[in-house]
Amino acid sequence: LSQSLLGRTPRLLDQKPGYWSLSTVKPRGAATRVLQHQHQQQPQEFPAQTQMHHSACNGKHCVFSGQTAGELHEWLESHGVDTRCYGKDTSKTVGELLEEQAKNESLLNVVDGRAMRTVKVLSLHITNGNGQVLFEDEQILPDGRSRRRNVQVSEKLMGDESWQSGVDRAVREELGTVLPEGYQVTVDTDTYRQLVEFATSMSYPGLLTKYVCHRVKATVTGLPQTRFETCEPRPKLGGRLVTRWVWRNPEEVEEQHALRNAE
After folding, report:
1. Helix (H, G, I), strand (E, B) or coil at 56
2. What is d(CA 56, CA 62) in angstroms, rounded to the nearest whole number?
3. Cα angle at 158 between 174 and 189, to 5 degrees?
């Protein structure tokens, strides 16, 4: 897991079959920061990217490895993706896709002449004492645009990061601004499952995307039990990202909400 949660160190509380928990405490000496898990680690879906000049090819598969938005724009257009609508309405920009690459949150390659993006996504179904599920309802982007989301807590996994480690980061990054000191996360590992879907990206229209989704249920103490907002700074985009959250009853949760919204 990451070295800190909102400046505090995660501590393993207890383990029992099907569950593990962590809480946050102020750092105090050298503490164990790794959560052990009884299930087998998931295999790496794509390799950590390396610094190369534009692309690297192996047979029919060419991996994008450029360094600039201009290179990425040229690469996408040359492999069948029309980027003219990027940055308009609810779509993201080529620059944001490049930033995603730089953070190792996705892999761009060419399969049979067509550009394809591979993303590993953690979908965390956080429930409360009433059995309701936490949903991301809306995002207000740094430029003022609004995106309806309708998706559970989600986070793109980076490189070979395990979904277990992603739980820590997803809670901290998505919900950290409203969580109290000493909050606790409990994951029901018996609910874990992996899904794979191929679809055109909603964030990057025309770009075929392979979504590898790691789905699991959890509880988080200290969360507001009514509608609330979180805020994340986005300095590279010149502002901040505001997210609006809502609790929904299980019968309102549709299985098909799935992977494309988790971007």
Report:
1. strand
2. 5
3. 70
Structure tokens at 42: 């998931």
Three-state SS at 74: helix
Q: Which residues contact 16 (CB under 8 A, 6 or more apart)?
A: none
pLDDT, mean over the chain: 79
* Report field, pTM of the whole predicted structure over 0.85: no
Whether the CB-CB separation of 22 and 10 falls below 8 Å is answered with yes
Q: Are 44 and 160 in contact (CB under 8 A)?
A: yes
Regarding predicted confidence, which is higher, 159 or 260?
159
* Secondary structure element (H or E) that encloses residue 173, with its range: helix 163-175
Task: Provide CB contacts within 8 A for 249, sequence distance 6+.
Answer: 131, 132, 133
Residue-wise pLDDT tens digits, 16-62: 445 555 544 333 332 222 333 333 344 444 443 333 335 566 545 58
Exposed, middle or buried by CB within 10 Å (0-12, 13-18, 19+), for 42? middle
123: left (phi over 0), alpha (psi -120 to 50) or beta: beta
**In the predicted structure, residue 106 carries a pLDDT above the cut 70:** yes
Could you tell me if 126 and 152 are in contact, meaning their C-beta atoms sit under 8 angstroms apart? yes
Residue 100, phi then psi, degrees to nearest 5:
-60, -40
| End-to-end CA separation in angstroms for the chain | 22
Check: CB of residue 75 under 8 Å from CB of residue 64. yes
3-class SS at 7?
Answer: coil
